[in-house]
Amino acid sequence: MAGGDRVHPYIPNSVPEVKARMLAELGIDDIDTLYEDIPEELRFKGALDIPDGITSEMELERHLENVLSENKTCRESISFLGGGCYQHYVPAVCDEIAGRSEFLTAYAGEPYEDHGRFQALFEYQSLMGELLEMDVVNVPTYDWGQAASTSIRMAGRITGRKVVLVADTISPDRLQVIRTYCEPVMRIELVEHSNLTAGLDMEDLRNRLDDSVAGLYLENPSYFGTLEESGCTIADALHANGSVFIVAVDPLSLGVLAPPSQYGADIACGDIQGLGNHMYFGGALGGFIGTRDEEKYVMEYPSRLFGICKTQRPGEWGFGDVAYGRTSFAVREQGKEFVGTAAALYGISAAVYLSLLGPEGMRELNQNIMQKSQYAMRKLSQLEGVRLRFDAFHFKEFLVDFSATGRTVGEINSALLAQGIFAGKDLGDDFAELEGCALYAVTEVLRREDIDRLVDALRAYLS
Amino acid sequence: MEIQPGSRLRNFHQAKWDEEVIFELSTPGQRGLHIPEVETEISDLVGDGLSSIPAGMRRATAPGLPEVGQMRVLKHYLRLSQQNLGADLNVDIGQGTCTMKYNPKINEKIAASSKAQDIHPHQDESTVQGALRVMYELDLFLREISGLDRFSLQPSSGSQAILTMAAIMHEYHQVRGQADSRDELITTIFSHPSDAAAAAVKGYRIITLYPDEQGMPDVEALKAAVSNRTAGLFITNPEDIGIFNPRIAEFTRIVHEAGGICGYDQANANGILGITRAREADFDLCFFNLHKTFGAPHGCGGPAAGALGATRELAEYLPVPVVSYDGSKYFLDYDVPHTIGKVRSFYGAFPVMLKSYAWILSMGAEGLKEAARIAVLNNNYLLKKITEIAGATSPYTGGKRRIEQVRYSWEELYNETGIDTHDVTRRMADFGFHLWQSHHPFVVPQPFTIEPTESYSKEELDEYLDGLRHVVEEARTEPQTVKSAPHNSVVHRIAESSLDDPEKWAVTWRAFLKKHGKAAAKIRS
Asked: Could you tell me the pTM of the whole model?
């Protein structure tokens, strides 16, 4: 019994009299009898080397607070980190709803006792559908990497082709996820970018297009924060080749920027972390996939798709699974990829977030981010030896090139860290040609004085 | 049917707000949140920030999001939450295989602290020592519980852990020059559907073993299935029907002798913590669902974590990074010689890890074992009581004990009354209970799977039993009540057929309006 002789607060039937009554009901004396089918040689004979239980909640809290106190947070610092996980403001209502017991501790109830979860996630799909101007969006998958991978696999199944081109302005992290999910069934080939704008190299794309190409996957904004302006041209080239155009997009940018559907994308995907979910060390991600409402697309989703319908009672909305028969829940390996527990709660937070912001809030948010990031870019590029790596429109991230300063990004970042500034991620390790460059993200949570502090600290350090 | 005197059954009715879809609540001009205006120094320098957007990259029309005041948004989602039955409110034992145990509130409180929420994955390691310590120590705990040598916390569900196992298996054979020739994965029908489906994503041909008459995975069938094409075996134990396979070491031996890798799906580990381990059964890989066995909540279907363990040999293939400790500091370790790379961005679902770390700390070694033992006691108590209900059976029992769950059958009830397992499920909702059928295919006819865990008191188990007895009684006396259920839930039976019809299905509100017209949206009038 944990906690000395006391019954653990989480195990009510540990009470000896209760245990005895239940054992008597079974006609046995000892719980060990219930394990009699486990052969002796499979039994674990030792003791687990795990500390005694901290059964007092008060002491547990103290211990955990002590462990976590070793973290220094982005709120205690000024952070310019991005690259797929972002410090956006999380409205209080998002936390209130995501923390509700009814949502937090539910799982897989039927459309009756879990009506609320079905409706909330249908609304999530619908709100994302408005941002994307697409009629089908799935219940969240694990993360952007998996959403990208599934989009690629969908393109493969829809076209019956094996090669997917990937614009190489992609996070290396995500490219690894894509390779894990897609190879060896699909073949991934990288398409190069312009050294000037980071835009897709159209010539390289055209040279690679043939009847083996299922589609192109392009991130817009790119991992470097740059916006691709040639979406329509790319879409035309792909469609003329019978290929699918997959665009990954930051959903937060769609208050003002064109959704991928506007420039010809067939599948859109990305991550919903920024929509009302905290960073959690990169642990609160959720992937989305959107398409047109065509059967050939819908039937290739592996994910749950919650649909709205009527009930036997006039005046009631009902919700349930659309085309469940395509999933691995229904037909195991005959289904489309696999489905399971992923990131539903983050979809609910995202629904609350988009409901709170509405069209005007999204517009204001986009403008705020763009103004602040442009301000930061302008100020930084005025520093001696510091320049912006790519000449393009940036949404909230940009590459700062320090290679002419005589300092490495590592040195610069250490100096800034000492002043409480989490500087942009060093990209030199992942991209040889970007030695000396760092990826900076500016969101609405940064104030002018935060940006100025960065600029001042850099000026002092570099001079 | 009236609730019988002496029954613990509640005169329940779920909250029913008749709540609109959020788009129906929109009033132009209403606001739920303001974004701060930028400082004038900023706008003076860069202008409105929008004018430099390239032509064609500005959206043509504002997104059609609803415009709703903050309190109404809050109320809307609160009402939806009330129309959902979480485990905190429910005797949530009817979702077998999913281990719906108590998710302690203190763990939520800790996970909601800024020290956990507001850290970025690319921060300097010196600023995230707390988070890295949580991950490192959780790895150590799971090594003890499994007997394996190293864990990756990156896979973010059981299914993703299965995909990771498949990727490791593929790379393992690749290193040996056999990736192309070893293209078959063996699993069993009573292992989770993802054991087959996620392996197939990696290109494997799936061989599924069916049980023998005792419900055991058929060892003769396994012998017939293995060959030089065998890449490996992914299997649960106890399987989803709740029976422990005592010949599991024979299974792993047969597969190893054929040159395959053995992966242990430990989704059903809650009854065997500290009792038997992956090591003793000679598995190469195993994974635990932290959101099931280790006390983290299920969140309506995630976030989750499928912590993946490996032997020393296969630890060389784990996703990167793993977390190491050099005696003075914790660090992200990319030195994994044959790593498969990544299955998820960054390091995994940190809040889930933190909650499970807290849960294990609270339990301690003794508490883990006590949780397992009580979960098994609760399960066998229910087994006895449920099989006393005429109409319910537990196929394959044959005098065998069950571990943490049982797959039951309503076949006798169905044959006698015409009430099937879906009908019973819907009627149970009328009393505030969730009852799940089972994964497809229904090898056990008219199935339902119950897993009581260690969290619920005997009185609560008895209450659930009263619910089952009541519905079975109704099936005999007034079957129409059961057939037409639910009656006390949020909504009545849904028109399921429209969800499979491409002409009618609507996955978004905009699709609904296009297909059914604005008039159809005015459902109340």
From this structure: 0.98
